[in-house]
Amino acid sequence: MKAICFYFQIHQPFRLKRYRFFDIGNDHYYYDDFANDDIITRIAQRSYIPAAESLLRMIEESKGKFRCAISITGVALEQCEQYVPEFIDVLKKLADTGKVEFLAETYAHSLSSLIDAEEFAAQVKAHGEKIHQLFGVQPKVLRNTELIYCDDLAPQILNMGYKGVITEGAKHILGWKSPNYVYSAASAPKLKMLLKNSKLSDDIAFRFSNTEWESYPLTADKYIDWIASTPTEEQIINLFLNLETFGEMQSRETGIFQFLEALPRFAAEKGIDFWTPSEAISKLKPVDNLSVMHPISWADEARDTSAWLGNKLQNEAFQKLYSVAERVRLCDDRRLKQDWYYLQASDHFFYMCTKHLADGAVHSHFSPYETPFQAFTNYMNALADFIVRVEEQYPLSIENEELDALLTTIRNQAREIGTLTKEVESMRKNIEHFNEEHLLREAAKAAIAEESKPKAKKAAPKAKKAKAVEINDEVVTTEPAPEKKPRRCCKKK
Predict the structure, then answer these.
(1) Is 450 tagged catalytic?
(2) Which terminus in the chain has less CB density within 10 A, N or C?
């Protein structure tokens, strides 16, 4: 039996306002609230909400046979809560159906997995807590930012408790192999991998409305026929898309929503199921190990990380940002930590890309800046002010070795406190148990002693007590009359 695994990504960054050099040290607010409100509201009304409502109808009309997965970043959730809370309500309805799986990812849609394992773990944990808070579910499969993955990440992902990871089915990694199977990670064989079918995914995301495309127009029955015609042994077709494909990248007028809603009906006719990522990795066994020595992603033609770290501008900003990571984690300033998350969004580095041709056109389409150099300058000004604020709490004059020693001491103390806390808790439970046993023993002894006592004799009559009587304002104590002895009858001789 063949199955389709649909996954939809939702992300919007907090975009920066025009931040000048002279604002450094004077203005600590970096965001363009008007642009953020306008963009998230427009896309939610044109794409996110109608697409989510289409998914609801597909689940209802198929009587639960249609299933899919959604991954929404923490920063996108914050914007939705602030500007379009009605979209959160629709997502909750999807969660309540039990047919939609929510995936784990980095809270800030960051590149932390490439440079800071501790920050990566902290963000994934924070994201999981946010998903559980809003939707009452706990993610079991991880989707890293932009599907970034490599062998170095697999052991950490597995240790974090995730059963599977989804990533790009990059041709230079697969070679002759097909993405339509479940694989296991070479560096952590217990971690299962789901690979995006780029060709079939991009047919919807990029080519659907292209009138020059040889397969135009794309209809639901034609698309399902393509999937059904894949080799029988290829059991899983992974279609990974941005949710804004529906209504934003491909406008409503193209018929994209009708295409989406018709898929379950034609799939049922061909005997094709829909599975969530968790269902796919639980039902299918890996056919082989897959090694990914260098990071891959689903961006650009190269399917690597050059979209964010491909030039000197991007790498300079990236290194500067994470140079203060340890210090930020030490502080308790809530606003500082919030800015730390917002500044980590991979979009800021994406805008600095200097690629040309098709890749460059994609970067320009999403960028609010006229040039990559303008994006770099604006970001570095905001980052400079952020670093000044960090330095006020933890001066950069402290050498990294000294800071590392301090952090080691703090971590050792935390572990020691944790151990002592466990010991105290164990001793407390032992004392409570001992007290319970002692009370039971004492009660048993008392019961035995009570049973062994002889029956008490009748009590002797009580002696009469003296009474106080008030006579002529004087209190006179009257003694009880002596008991009369029985008289003896005796006769005189």
Answers:
(1) no
(2) C
Task: Give residues with Cβ within 8 angstroms of 19, minimum separation 6.
Answer: 27, 30, 378, 381, 382, 385
Distance CA 186, CA 290 (A): 5
* Structure letter (DSSP) for residue 46: I
Q: Cβ contacts of residue 437 below 8 Å, gap of 6+?
A: none
Q: Which of 101, 105, 119, 146 is catalytic?
A: 146
- 161 with 290: CB under 8 angstroms? no
Helix axis angle, 198-205 to 220-228, nearest 10°? 180
Checking if the pLDDT of 151 tops 70, the result is yes
Task: Please name each of the domains of the chain with its CATH number.
Answer: 3-308 (3.20.110.20)
Residue 347 CA from chain centroid, whole number = 20
Cα–Cα nearest to 179, from 230, 103, 243, 224:
230
Instruction: Give the span between the Cα atoms of 88 and 93, in whole angstroms.
Output: 9
Phi, psi values for residue 112, rounded to 5°: -60, -25
> Would you state the structure tokens that stand for residue 64, as one six-digit string?
């639960």
> Are 50 and 247 within 8 A, CB to CB?
yes
Residue written as token pair 């009590």:
459
- The single-letter DSSP state of residue 454 is P
165: left (phi over 0), alpha (psi -120 to 50) or beta: beta
Q: How far apart are CA 359 and CA 354, in angstroms?
A: 9
Measured distance CA(261)–CA(231) in Å, rounded: 25
H/E stretch holding 289 reads: strand 289-290
What confidence tier does 359 reach under pLDDT thresholds 50, 70, 90?
Answer: low
- Pair 30, 348: CB distance under 8 Å: no
Q: How many CA atoms lie within 13 A of 138 on its CB side?
A: 5
- Looking at the chain, how many residues does it have? 493
293-321 pLDDT per residue, tens: 999 999 988 899 999 999 999 999 999 99
Residues 336 and 328: beta-carbon distance below 8 Å: yes
Each residue's pLDDT tens digit, 452-479: 766 544 444 554 554 554 544 555 555 5
Interatomic CA distance for residues 362 and 373, integer angstroms: 17
Q: What are phi and psi of 190, to 5 degrees?
A: -80, -15
Cα–Cα distances in Å, from 200 out to 208, 209, 223?
Answer: 11, 14, 8
Largest CA distance in the chain: 161
- Considering the entire predicted model, what is its pTM? 0.80
Nearest-angstrom CA–CA distance, 97 and 60: 9
Q: Is the dihedral of CA 334, 335, 340, 342 positive or negative?
A: positive
